[in-house]
């Protein structure tokens, strides 16, 4: 049995036990924060309309989850978690960008 105690385990059927390791985030700190934030945004879906790109996610029968990259990247809490996660790397700024791209790609593929 799985002993993971992460907020996204049940809704995503995904946890640390089956997660792919990322060298920039070996303890899943940023991944946990990102998935928690995406689930929080998803819980608000009936009231979210993304008009900038013509993406509309107001239909309760629509199973897609829509979010904009800039919304996630501009989130102050996620930004702080990302910076703290990679602060000891050789190039922290580049590592933050790589961390966002890699983790968002994983979130989209799941």
Protein model, in words:
With 110 residues, the chain is mostly helical. The chain is 48% helix and 4% strand. The protein has 5 helices and 2 strands. It has a two-stranded antiparallel sheet. Strand 1 (49-50) and strand 2 (55-56) form a beta hairpin. The relative contact order is 0.16. The model has no long low-confidence stretch (mean pLDDT 79).
Q: Helices, strands, pairings?
A:
Blueprint: H1 9-12, H2 29-43, E1 49-50, E2 55-56, H3 69-73, H4 76-86, H5 92-109
Antiparallel strand pairs: 1-2
Helix pairs in contact: 2-4, 2-5, 4-5
Provide a brief overview of the structure.
The chain is built from five helices and two strands. With about 110 residues, it is mainly alpha-helical. The chain is globular and about 35 Å long.
Which features characterize this protein?
single chain; 110 residues; mainly alpha; two-stranded antiparallel ribbon; 5 helices; 2 strands; globular
Biggest beta sheet attributes: 2 strands, antiparallel
Structural class determined from secondary elements: mainly alpha
| Approximate shape | globular
Beta-strand content estimate: under 5%
Q: Helix-strand pattern, N to C?
A: HHEEHHH
The residue-averaged pLDDT reads 79
Distance between the termini: 21 Å
Radius of gyration: 15 Å
* Strand adjacency order, main sheet: 1-2
Uncertain segments: none
The helix tally amounts to 5
- Strand segment tally: 2
Secondary structure: helix percent: 40-55%
